[in-house]
Amino acid sequence: METDEDERVRRLTDAEARALELFDAVMERGIVAAGVSERAASDAVRDLAAEMLGVDRFWHKRIVRAGPNTLHPYADNPPDRDIAADDIVFLDFGPVLEEWEADVGRTVVLGDDPHKHALADALQTVWDGARDHFVATPDITGEQLYAHVCGLAADAGWEFGGSIAGHLVGQFPHKQISGSEIDCYVAPGSREPMRRNDRAGLATHWILEVHLVDRDAQIGGFTEQLLDIGPNAR
Fold this sequence. Notes:
Elements: H1 5-28, H2 38-53, E1 63-66, E2 88-93, E3 96-97, E4 100-101, E5 104-109, H3 114-136, H4 142-155, E6 159-160, E7 166-168, E8 206-214, E9 219-226
Antiparallel strand pairs: 1-2, 2-5, 3-4, 6-8, 7-8, 8-9
Helix pairs in contact: 1-2, 3-4
């Protein structure tokens, strides 16, 4: 287990950067396209990760969801669906890169529907607002940050669609050293300060995720990335 904090931060941020390169390659190769099934796209992500990055495992299930399936949070397993020409689509994958976990989520809109583009644009706005609140609140708990994210979503005119708004990330498998289950998440009931050491004495690092939905329009969007370290931290 790596215990040098500078090295831990370097490895986690590098893993995220490489996962984002994978996402860019997914889009460049047309893996997310009309007529492709969600399952086929997910399998193509798996194969491309192996080709590009030598990834042979993901620390959580790969997700590609389109259209009404974007309403479903991570824990659900909606029926496979073919991507349509005007769909909103989100991807969520967590490759293990040289024993370090990455977790990135991104949303794309196929077509010109302004409402879908507005939802996709709101994701980063809500994420940034939640990050800023995290930075400004040194003793914030996971429960408090979750409530704030839900409030930001409502203020922006959307519903928050997830039961969590983030989780710990680290050297695979981080759950061996993370402590009690609920305190691994940005979620109701997570009452430990997010800025703390885990039971191995190492600083905790966090993913912040935002899932926005419009149930009437049957659309949703998702984004996630490192919260407290990396290029988006402050």
